[in-house]
Design a protein that fits this description.
The complex is a heterodimer of chains A (about 260) and B (about 325). Chain A contains 10 helices and 10 strands. Chain A is of the alpha/beta class and about 260 residues long. Chain A has a 10-stranded mixed sheet with strand order 5-4-1-2-10-9-3-8-7-6, with helices on both faces. Chain B is flat. Chain B has one domain: Orthogonal Bundle (MetI-like fold). Classes of the chains: A alpha/beta (about 260), B mainly alpha (about 325). Chain B: This is Phosphate transport system permease protein.
């Protein structure tokens, strides 16, 4: 588990509009990579190209390459469904399936593609996933209750359990704490630090303290102006980005001097 | 220290604005009006049906009593409406899915428009189409069915030579209820939260799995509701069935013979002009039965929808 992702000269287009330009980075396995930057700079867009979720938007396309270990994610023969099996995603708003119980939410990914698991195997996997999302103790007595009855922070951890249940290589998180209170945020951050032992984690966040707390590497995205494409200004060790960044724009942004 | 704190004089009511009061009045009035109309219909049906309920059996048309008069009608009504739904609901769900999840935008729009147009066609047109086009076309296939699949009760035969069979009535009804079901289900599918679709895709589901995981459960109660709407229309449909169905027989599952049970609504339409006295009361009694089953159908639908309320996503 946990793989390295190499991104090279990635341009992201919506139809003819160039949204993000020239991103190159290496995402290290078993570490947390945080992407920060102002709204609209393309960091979420970039995150969604890593598991080809951006393709849900009609006419979205990329140029350049994204290679996970030795597999080109955009090779013509690659099925995006398989990419998403290996690269899981957690969204800004917790989105457990409202029609399913807590148990079924976690098991949802395990039932896909006609995979048949024995009841006991399924129970084990659900328990292990909920444990690794630090949710097991809170829900073990109500696994058959609807997932939408949980609190916001619990729902987000349920989504993390659902994502790790299919045993992906990489976990993408798109502002996972932006709708949560500080205590739930703390729980998710602790969880990320635990999960990085087994997964490659990429997180988009607006909260710079959060990036500083949880990540090993931080990338700063920015855009030159309205209508211009977003770009990766620099990416480096988190301690370096938050102490002595090499770019003026990064320093301005993290010190709050940014517009 | 004995201090008695006098409660400040309470205003009896919060101030009310005339706009609020007028609107509350209008909406309450409308609600009451609906109940009154429903009660009025029920009272009318019961009082007019009453003489036939108390009349001796030999006075009822057919001479065997009210229950035996209505039973074939009820059977014909239920079998035609239910089988029409069996055809229409899966088709409607499939069309709605195609429009919302598979078709390119331009085709989806055109198709949706055509389906809506279908809903605007008067039922007499469907009756004409059934009797002039569909009925003759079915003669050969139903003959084949009765010869080769005659062991299935539905196709026992002998096949009608005119094609004015229960099968044709069912198909016509299915086409008639298709647009309303499709429209309601399509609306539900377009409202499937993007969040849930993305959640399904992000754990590696295919498009069909995403639909099964996110879209169908979300639309479930709408599908049930739409089916009940369609069932209501199929139960009450008069003209098309009256034209298409050659009704002469009693209770039978045989869908392709020339002897079919009539339906309540079509029977009322056909018999009413030539009836008088107790025969009219009898027809109205059959109408009362139709009214009752429509109520029951709706109550069952409610119960089904409410049973899994916790999981509906509305909380």
């Amino acid at each position: 588990m946990a793989k390295r992702i190499e991104v090279k000269d990635l341009d992201i287009y919506y139809d003819k509009f160039l949204a993000v330009q020239g991103v190159s980075m290496t995402i290290q396995p078993r570490s947390v990579t945080a992407l920060i930057g102002p709204s609209g700079c393309g960091k979420s867009t970039f995150l969604r190209t890593l598991n080809r979720m951006h393709e849900l938007v009609p006419n979205a396309r990329v140029e350049g390459s994204i290679v996970m270990d030795d597999d080109d994610l955009y090779a013509p023969s690659v099925d995006p469904v398989n990419v998403r099996r290996q690269i899981g995603m957690v969204f800004q708003r917790a989105n457990p399936f409202p029609t399913m119980s807590i148990y079924d939410n976690v098991a949802a990914g395990l039932k896909l593609n006609n995979r048949r698991l024995k009841k006991s195997e399924m129970d084990d996997l659900v328990e292990r996933s909920l444990k690794s999302a630090n949710l097991w103790e809170e829900v073990k007595d109500r696994l058959q209750k609807p997932g939408s009855g949980l609190s916001g922070g619990q729902q987000q951890r349920l989504c993390i359990a659902r994502a790790v249940a299919v045993q992906p290589e990489v976990l993408l998180m798109d502002e996972p704490c932006s709708a949560l209170d500080p205590i739930s945020t703390q729980a998710i951050e602790d969880l990320m630090l635990e999960l990085k032992a087994n997964y490659t984690i990429v997180i988009v966040t607006h909260n710079m303290q959060q990036a500083a707390r949880v990540s090993d590497t931080t990338g700063f995205f920015n855009l030159q102006g309205v209508g211009k494409p977003g770009e990766l200004v620099e990416i480096d060790e988190t301690t370096k980005i938050f102490s002595t960044p090499s770019q003026k724009a990064t320093e301005d942004y993290i010190s709050g001097r940014f517009g | 220290m004995a201090s008695t704190t006098e409660a400040p004089p309470r205003k009896d009511r919060a101030p009310q604005r005339p706009g609020d009061r007028i609107f509350a009045g209008i909406s309450t009035g409308s609600g009451v009006l609906i109940l009154l109309a429903l009660a009025g219909v029920a009272v009318f049906l019961v009082t007019e049906a009453w003489p036939s309920l108390t009349a001796p059996a030999e006075d009822i048309p057919g001479g065997e009593g009210l229950a035996l008069y209505i039973w074939p009608l009820l059977f014909g009504t239920l079998i035609s409406a239910v089988l029409a739904l069996v055809i229409a609901v899966p088709l409607a769900v499939a069309i709605a899915l195609f429009i919302t999840h598979y078709a390119p935008r331009s085709i989806a729009k055109a198709l949706g428009y055509v389906i809506d147009l279908l809903a605007a066609v008067p039922s007499i047109i469907f009756g004409l189409w059934g009797i002039n086009v569909l009925a003759p076309v079915t003669v050969d296939p139903t003959t084949w069915l009765s010869e080769h699949l005659g062991w299935i009760p539905f196709f026992a035969g002998p096949a009608s030579s005119t094609g004015r069979t229960m099968l044709v009535a069912i198909i016509v009804l299915a086409v008639m209820v298709l647009p309303i079901i499709t429209a309601v289900v399509r609306e539900a599918f377009t409202q499937t939260p993007k969040l849930h679709e993305e959640a399904a895709l992000a754990i590696g589901s295919t498009r069909w799995e995403m639909i099964r995981m996110a879209a169908l459960p979300f639309a479930r109660s709408s599908i049930i509701g739409a089916s009940m709407l369609g069932l209501g229309r199929a139960l009450g449909e008069t003209m098309a069935v009256a034209m298409v169905l050659s009704a002469s027989g009693g209770v039978s599952f045989n869908l392709i013979s020339s002897e079919n049970p009539p339906t309540i609504a079509a029977n009322i339409a056909l018999q009413f002009p030539e009836s008088s006295g107790i025969a009219i009361n009898t027809l109205i009694a059959s109408g009362l039965v139709l009214f009752a089953i429509t109520l029951v159908v709706n109550m069952i639908a409610r119960a089904v929808i409410n049973r899994r309320k916790d999981f509906s996503g509305a909380n």
